User: Fold this.
Amino acid sequence: MINCFSCNNKDEERVIFPAKYWKVLISNNQFHLGQSIVDLKRHAESLSKLTKEEYFEFGKIAKKLENGIKKAFKPTHFNWFCLMNNAVRNKQSPHVHWHLVPRYDKKIEINKEIFIDEEYCFHCDMMKERKENNETLKIIKKMIKNNI
Assistant:
């Protein structure tokens, strides 16, 4: 078995919607409300290893996911990251995945919890974490899913 977090992660509860080549997941880290992960289903260590079908489907997923988050929470814009530093640092095999980080110029309240984008208009620190209770995470996921 490959020493790869993504390949060994079987958490299906976080799936927002199905896709052929990618897993579309709500992130456990909601430091930025609606933060999501688009994770390649097969193992590939770099973007240059993606097929044209995988690139094409990723484009469709990006449009669908951004539109769902726009309708649900009205962010001002989005940041996309393809980072594999944690895998290398943890001596794991890198795995192609994307982080979608919605950005907000206003506070948002979900399930009596306040979300404020403290880094608005600056690069976001992907090491900052905010772990939501399971109920709030389910509500966020459902709001995105219902707006796709």
